[in-house]
Every structure is written in structure tokens, then in C-alpha cells.
Amino acid sequence: MDRAPPGGRDLMGVVLLWSFGLVAALLFWRALGTWRQRRRVPALRAQGATIVDVRSADEFAQGHVEGSLNAPLATLPAGLEKVDRARTLILCCASGARSEAAIVLLRRAGYLHVVNGGSWRDLR
């Protein structure tokens, strides 16, 4: 008697479909948030936000946004001790992945105004 109860397979299909839909919605919501943040970058730069490049010192030496600070991800938040926590920071790296991780670290350390600027090349 290893047969599924009547309607059991239908219920499992509905649960899987809802689960897939929920995951898709969450991924879309996260991508939309990142896109909205990056749209704000030009205005934040015009208002004097500080650009912080979280790539390694070697990567930074190979090219960076003029006037940006280098604070490698491994040194955060200690690498920004001299930066005012109330100041708006635009974080960048090679792709946006390390800057997203840096946002989590900095928010835990009390930096409230941090934005993922994505790739440093997009900020030039």
C-alpha cells in the first residue's frame, strides 16, 4: 500500500509550485532593490557621498575611481574607522558581490547610509 492518497499528488504539485513562485518573487524583489539603489548613485555622488572600493589593494592599484577610498572587504569595518558613520558611502568592487557583503558588515557596525554601487567601472 505505497499508493498516494487521492489528491495527494495534486497537493504536492501545488506546494511545489507555490514554493517555486515564492523563491522567484524573492529573487525578483532583491534584484529590484539593487537596481533601485544603483539608480540613486549619481545623485548621491553629486551630494558628496564617499566611494569606498572593497577590492584588495592590488586590484585597487590596477585601477579605481578617482577620489575613492580603498578598504578591502577583509579589513571591514576597521578599515573605515576614520569615516563618519553618518556619511553616505557608495561601495564598489569588481562586480558588486563583495560590496553587497560589505554592506552587511558595515550596517552591523553602525553605518546606516551604505549603497551598493556595483562595479567600480560603472562609477567612473
How would you characterize the overall build of this protein?
This protein is of the alpha/beta class and 124 residues long. The chain has a domain at 38-123: 3-Layer(aba) Sandwich (Oxidized Rhodanese, domain 1), CATH 3.40.250. Helices cover 46% and strands 14% of the residues. It has 3 helices and 4 strands. The protein has helices at 8-46, 57-62, 97-108; strands spanning 50-53, 69-70, 89-93, 114-119. Strands 2-1-3-4 form a 4-stranded parallel sheet. Helix 2 (57-62) links the parallel strand 1 (50-53) and strand 2. The longest helix has 39 residues, at 8-46.
| Secondary-structure content class | alpha/beta
Distance between the termini: 67 Å
Beta strands, count: 4
Strand content bin: 5-15%
Please give the CATH class of one domain: Alpha Beta
Order of strands in the sheet with the most strands?
2-1-3-4
Proportion of helical residues = 40-55%
Mean pLDDT: 85
CATH topology of one domain: Oxidized Rhodanese, domain 1
What's the story with the biggest beta sheet? 4 strands, parallel
